[in-house]
Write a structure and sequence with these properties.
7-stranded mixed sheet, about 40% helix, 12 helices, alpha/beta, Purple Acid Phosphatase, chain A, domain 2
C-alpha cells in the first residue's frame, strides 16, 4: 500500500509543498536583510559577528539545512549523514572555519532530546571546530529554538560541552583588488511569511506534514526539483544584494544551490547562448537531462555576481552541497557517495577578484 501511495502522491505533494512552503514578501525581505546587516556591522557580537579575514590564507566552509532528525521516515538528513561527517572530518583536518548557516536541527518536527540522542556523531564532529575556535553557528527558522528558548543554552552545553552563542548572521570582511569586500551570511528565512517563525507553519510541519512524510518516506529535496530557475525567495535575495556595493550575500533556506546569482539550469542556459557546434549540443543535452519542459529563459547576462546559496545537506540521494571560500576563490561544492566512499566535487569556482559586484 505504501509503494502505491508513494507513486500516486509523491509528485503532487512535492508540487504543493513547493507552492505553499514559501511566501516571501519583497518589502519584508528588504527590510529584514537591511536591518540585520546594519545591526551586525554597527553592533557586532549581539546579533552577529564581524570577522576580518585574509582571502589568500583563511578558509571557510559554509553548510546549511541539515534538518537533523530522529532517523525515522521523516528524517531527510539520514541518508546524508555519512557525507556530512566525511566532509567535516576533511575540512577540520585542513584547518577550515565551519559556518553552519541554520536549520541544522529539525526542531519543528522533533524535540531537542530526540535530536540529541540520534545525532551524537555529528555534534562530536562539530565540536572539533569549536576546539580550534573555528565554528560559527547561525540559526534558521526550523531551529529558531536556539534564539528564543530559555533552555537553549543548556541544550548547547549538553551537546558541545561548552557555551556556544548562536547568531542570526555574520559578515566576513576582506580586501580584494584594493577594495573592501563584505560577505554577508544569514539563513535566508527573513521576510518569508511562511517561515519567519510563525506558529501556523510550525504546527502544520510538526502535526500534519511530518507524520505524512514519515509514512510515505518522501523527501522533497531531489536534485531534479532544484535544477530550475531561481525560486521567488532566491530571486528576492538576489535583488537585495544586487543593489549593495561590494557586498556578497550567502544564504541557505531554499535548499536550491545558487552560484554567482544563477542556478545550475540558469548557468547552462547562459553557457548555451555563447556556445557553438558540439559544445552547444553537449550543453543542450545536459539541459534536456533535467527532464524539464523547454521554455524561453530570461537573459542572464546582466546579472551581477552578488548572491550565492549553499543548497542543503539533505538531498534524497544523500548528496550535500555547500560554499567554500579559500585560496582567493569561492566555490560551490558537492559531497557525494562513490561506492562506500564520500567524494568532494567542485561544481563551480570563481576567483574573488573576478566577481562582478
Amino acid at each position: 500500500m505504501r509503494k502505491l501511495l508513494q507513486r500516486l502522491l509523491t509528485k503532487p505533494v512535492i508540487r504543493l509543498a513547493n507552492k505553499w512552503s514559501s511566501r516571501p514578501d519583497k518589502k519584508r525581505v528588504d527590510k529584514a536583510l537591511g536591518d540585520l546587516y546594519q545591526n551586525i556591522t554597527t553592533n557586532p557580537g549581539k546579533r552577529g559577528l564581524v570577522v576580518p579575514f585574509s582571502a589568500d590564507k583563511d578558509r571557510f566552509i559554509i553548510l546549511s539545512d541539515q534538518h537533523k532528525g530522529a532517523r525515522d521516515g521523516s528524517d531527510i538528513f539520514a541518508r546524508s549523514a555519512k557525507n556530512y561527517l566525511a566532509a567535516l572530518d576533511q575540512y577540520n583536518k585542513e584547518g577550515f572555519c565551519y559556518i553552519n548557516l541554520g536549520d541544522s536541527e529539525e526542531l519543528w518536527e522533533n524535540i531537542f532530546l530526540t535530536i540529541k540522542r540520534h545525532n551524537k556523531k555529528t555534534f562530536e564532529a562539530e565540536k572539533q571546530f569549536l576546539a580550534r575556535n573555528a565554528f560559527i553557528k547561525i540559526f534558521g527558522n526550523h531551529d529558531l529554538y536556539w534564539d528564543n528558548d530559555p533552555l537553549a543554552m543548556v541544550s548547547l552545553l549538553q551537546v558541545y560541552g561548552q557555551q556556544v552563542k548562536v547568531y542570526e548572521g555574520a559578515v566576513l570582511e576582506t580586501t580584494v583588488n584594493n577594495k573592501k569586500l563584505s560577505i554577508y551570511l544569514t539563513h535566508g528565512h527573513q521576510g518569508d511569511l511562511q517561515s519567519d517563525g510563525n506558529w501556523f507553519s510550525k504546527w502544520f510541519v510538526s502535526d500534519v506534514w511530518a507524520p505524512f512524510q514519515s509514512y510515505l518516506r518522501i523527501n522533497p529535496n531531489t536534485p531534479a526539483n532544484n535544477d530550475q530557475l531561481k525560486t521567488d525567495h532566491n530571486r528576492l535575495m538576489y535583488e537585495w544584494s544586487s543593489k549593495r556595493k561590494d557586498i556578497v550575500l550567502i544564504t541557505g533556506h531554499t535548499h536550491q544551490p545558487v552560484f554567482r546569482s544563477l542556478t545550475e539550469l540558469e548557468i547552462l542556459y547562459e553557457s548555451l547562448a555563447s556556445a557553438t557546434g558540439e559544445q552547444q549540443a553537449a550543453i543542450q543535452a545536459r539541459i534536456d537531462k533535467l527532464h524539464l519542459e523547454r521554455f524561453r529563459p530570461p537573459d542572464f547576462k546582466g546579472y551581477l555576481d552578488t548572491y550565492f546559496n549553499s543548497g542543503c545537506c539533505c538531498f534524497d540521494d544523500g548528496d550535500i552541497t555547500g560554499i567554500e571560500i579559500a585560496d582567493n576563490c569561492i566555490r560551490l561544492i558537492k559531497w557525494e557517495y562513490k561506492g562506500k566512499e564520500s567524494v568532494r566535487i567542485v561544481l563551480e569556482e570563481s576567483q574573488l577578484k573576478d566577481l562582478r559586484l
